[in-house]
């Protein structure tokens, strides 16, 4: 049981295709100036500009030719080790359902727009494709060492909510950001969040929120640098060091941080929820 199901593309309704087109138009109208160029290149290579929900069979013909990756449909979140197993074999698991109009701006569970529009275009980029597979392999090792939480933070602050330098600018690349209209603006323009240069151990110790915009964003220099820092790292000593340290709360800056922007945290303070335990990981 690998948790995969048929996408059954023929069963999507006109309303579901229209929802995809509505989300796609809203994002592609605002992303070109904000998102890392490799993302837009991936959209074109995969012909994702075609109207309607992408048919995974068509998508995979191009994606597999580009980097050996394929998208497989799953019913929802799959168990961590199964998730890592798929990534380690260049299979990206994607929900096949699409959000309803009421969920336009936020839903807790990743839908096909988050998974396919957000995550898949960068899988065309050879170095990012290598990073995602290395992440899967690292996840399987972490699972055997009881360090999944540290790996999940790395995923969260790179694959889901990462920023990247592009010349003198900061650009978006995290899927959780690029699939969200509001956060695509907030992550770059809002003075509230901290923007901190990526540091592997710092990220693996840093808690994150799943219920609202991030209070911290971490900035990589390039996908090459991210891959170099992770694939070749010896995680043994890193895990030993992590075991000896408390997690770092969201919104906190350390004296050792290379801070790119010191956030006001005004947004987080203004939307102060009583973050229950499951919202901080
Ligand atoms: N399952 N379908 C799906 N999609 C994800 O992004 C996902 C998952 N399971 C676990 C998971 N992500 C993260 O917790 C990993 O970082 C462990
Ligand atoms: Fe995701």
Strand and helix map with partners:
Layout: H1 14-30, H2 37-45, H3 56-67, E1 70-74, H4 80-88, E2 91-95, H5 112-119, H6 126-145, H7 148-160, E3 163-166, E4 169-172, H8 175-178, H9 181-189, E5 194-197, H10 200-205, E6 216-220, H11 223-231, H12 235-243, E7 259-261, H13 266-270
Parallel strand pairs: 1-2, 3-6, 5-6
Antiparallel strand pairs: 3-4, 5-7
The structure holds 7,8-dihydrobiopterin and fe (iii) ion.
The site of fe (iii) ion has 6 residues, from α5 and α8.
Question: Can you describe what's shown?
Answer:
The chain is an alpha/beta fold and 281 residues long. The protein has a single domain (9-271), classed as Phenylalanine Hydroxylase (Orthogonal Bundle), CATH 1.10.800. 46% of the residues lie in helices and 11% in strands. The protein contains 13 helices and seven strands. α10 (200-205) links the parallel β5 (194-197) and β6. 40% of the residues are buried. The mean pLDDT is 94. 7,8-dihydrobiopterin binds next to α4 and α7.
Structural category: alpha/beta
State the distance separating the first and last CA atoms: 28 Å
Task: Kindly provide the name of the CATH class.
Answer: Mainly Alpha
Helix content: 40-55%
The percent range for strand residues is: 5-15%
Whole-number tally of structural domains: 1
Radius of gyration: 18 Å
Give the ordered list of helices and strands: HHHEHEHHHEEHHEHEHHEH
Number of DSSP E strands? 7
Under CATH, the topology can be stated as: Phenylalanine Hydroxylase
Strand order of the largest sheet: 4-3-6-5-7
- Output the number of helix runs: 13
CATH architecture: Orthogonal Bundle
Mean pLDDT: 94
Bound molecules: 7,8-dihydrobiopterin, fe (iii) ion
């Amino acid at each position: 049981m690998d948790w995969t199901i048929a996408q059954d593309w023929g069963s999507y309704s006109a309303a579901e295709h229209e929802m995809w087109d509505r989300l796609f138009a809203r994002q592609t109208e605002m992303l070109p100036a904000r998102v890392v160029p490799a993302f837009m290149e991936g959209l074109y290579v995969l012909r994702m500009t075609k109207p309607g929900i992408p048919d995974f069979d068509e998508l995979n013909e191009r994606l597999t030719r580009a980097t050996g990756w394929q998208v497989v449909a799953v019913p929802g979140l799959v168990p961590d080790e199964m998730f890592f197993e798929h990534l380690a074999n260049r299979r990206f698991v994607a929900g096949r359902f699409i959000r309803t109009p009421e969920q336009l701006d936020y839903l807790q569970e990743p839908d096909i727009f988050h998974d396919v529009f957000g995550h898949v275009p960068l899988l065309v980029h050879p170095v990012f494709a290598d990073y995602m597979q290395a992440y899967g392999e690292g996840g399987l090792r972490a699972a055997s060492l009881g360090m999944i939480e540290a790996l999940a933070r790395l995923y969260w602050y790179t694959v889901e909510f990462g920023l990247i330098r592009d010349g003198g600018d900061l650009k978006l690349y995290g899927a959780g950001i690029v699939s969200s209209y509001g956060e695509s603006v907030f992550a770059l323009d809002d003075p509230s969040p901290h923007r901190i240069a990526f540091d592997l151990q710092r990220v693996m110790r840093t808690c994150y929120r799943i219920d609202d915009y991030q209070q911290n964003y971490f900035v990589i220099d390039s996908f090459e640098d991210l891959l170099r820092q992770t694939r070749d790292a010896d995680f043994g000593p890193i895990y030993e060091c992590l075991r000896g340290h408390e997690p770092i709360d969201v919104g906190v800056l350390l004296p050792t941080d290379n801070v790119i922007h010191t956030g006001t945290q005004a947004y987080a303070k203004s939307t102060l929820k009583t973050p229950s335990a499951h919202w901080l990981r």
